[in-house]
C-alpha cells in the first residue's frame, strides 16, 4: 500500500470522476487494513511530535465529499493516535452573519494551523466553489460588487474564485504550511446504502436530514462541479487525492498512509542545541544529582 497511494494524487487537470474507482481495495482485506492502520499510527505520533517540537512548519488537511462518504469517521480513526495539543479540527457549517461581512476566505484564515501543528478542515473554503456553484443563489448572500442576481454570476466569476483559492494556497505553502486535500469518492449506490442505514438504525437517526435527499437529486451536478474544482485547483504544492470511499476501512488506510508519507517528506526534526546549551544542560544535570544526594 505504501506506493499505491500515488495513483490517487492529482496535481493537474482536467479529470473525470468516472475514471476513478469508488471501490478500490488493492486486494487487501479489512483485517489487513486494521493491522496496517495500527502500525502506522505509531509513526504518525512520532512525526507529529517532531513537527510540534520543531515549530517551523504546519500541515493543513482538507476533507471534501458527498454526504455520507465518511469524512467524520475517517478523521476520528486516522487521527486517533495523535496528541490533541498538536492537532486542530474545524468543521465548517453554513456561513453566519459575521462571515458574510468578510470575503469568502476570511473564516478559513482564522482556522489555519499554527506552526508545529496539524490542522484538519472538515469541509472548507472549497464549499464556495462546490455547494455555491450548484446553488449559485447562495453567492448573493455575499453582497459582492456587481452581483445582484444569479445571472450576474458568470464563468469569469468562477475562474476568478478558483484563482483566489490557488493564490491563497500558494501563499500558505510559501510560508511553511503543507496542504493536502482529500476528496472521498463515493458511489451513488453506496450512498443509498448508508442513507438506509441511518433510517433503519435508531442510533443513526440523528445523522439523517431531509435535505440530504434534496442534494442527492443533484448528484450529477455535484460530480460536475467537483471535476471542475479539482481540475482547476490541484497543483504540486497543494494536490488533491481522490480516495475510493465505498469501503470505509480502505479509505481510512489510504488517507493515513498519505498523511504519514507527507509528513515524512516534510522531514520535521527535534531542535538541535548549541554547544553552549549542551554545557549548560550538563550543569543542570549535576545540580539535580546534587539535590537528589541531599534528599537521601
Query: Can you identify the CATH superfamily?
Result: P-loop containing nucleotide triphosphate hydrolases
Count of discrete alpha- or pi-helical segments spanning 4 or more residues: 10
Which CATH first-tier class would you pick?
Alpha Beta
How many domains in all? 1
Largest sheet: 6 strands, mixed
- What gyration radius follows from the Cα positions, in whole Å? 22 Å
Largest sheet, spatial ordering of strands: 1-6-5-2-4-3
Sheet-strand content, in percent, reads 5-15%
SSE succession: EHEHEHEHHEHHHEHH
According to CATH, the fold-level topology is: Rossmann fold
Residue stretches low in confidence (pLDDT < 50, at least 5 long) are: none
Secondary structure: helix percent: 40-55%
What is the first-to-last residue Cα distance?
A: 55 Å
**Which CATH architecture is right?**
3-Layer(aba) Sandwich
Q: How many β-strands, per DSSP? A: 6
Shape: globular
Mean pLDDT: 93
* Backbone structural class: alpha/beta
Detailed description of the structure:
The structure is a single chain. This protein has 296 residues and is of the alpha/beta class. The chain has a single domain (4-295), classed as 3-Layer(aba) Sandwich (Rossmann fold), CATH 3.40.50. It is 46% helix and 11% strand. The protein contains 10 helices and 6 strands. It has helices at 30-54, 71-78, 106-109, 131-134, 155-174, 188-200, 210-216, 219-233, 248-266, 275-295, and strands at 9-10, 58-65, 87-91, 118-122, 177-185, 240-244. Strand 3 (87-91), helix 3 (106-109) and strand 4 form a beta-alpha-beta unit. The chain is globular, with a radius of gyration of 22 Å. The mean pLDDT is 93.
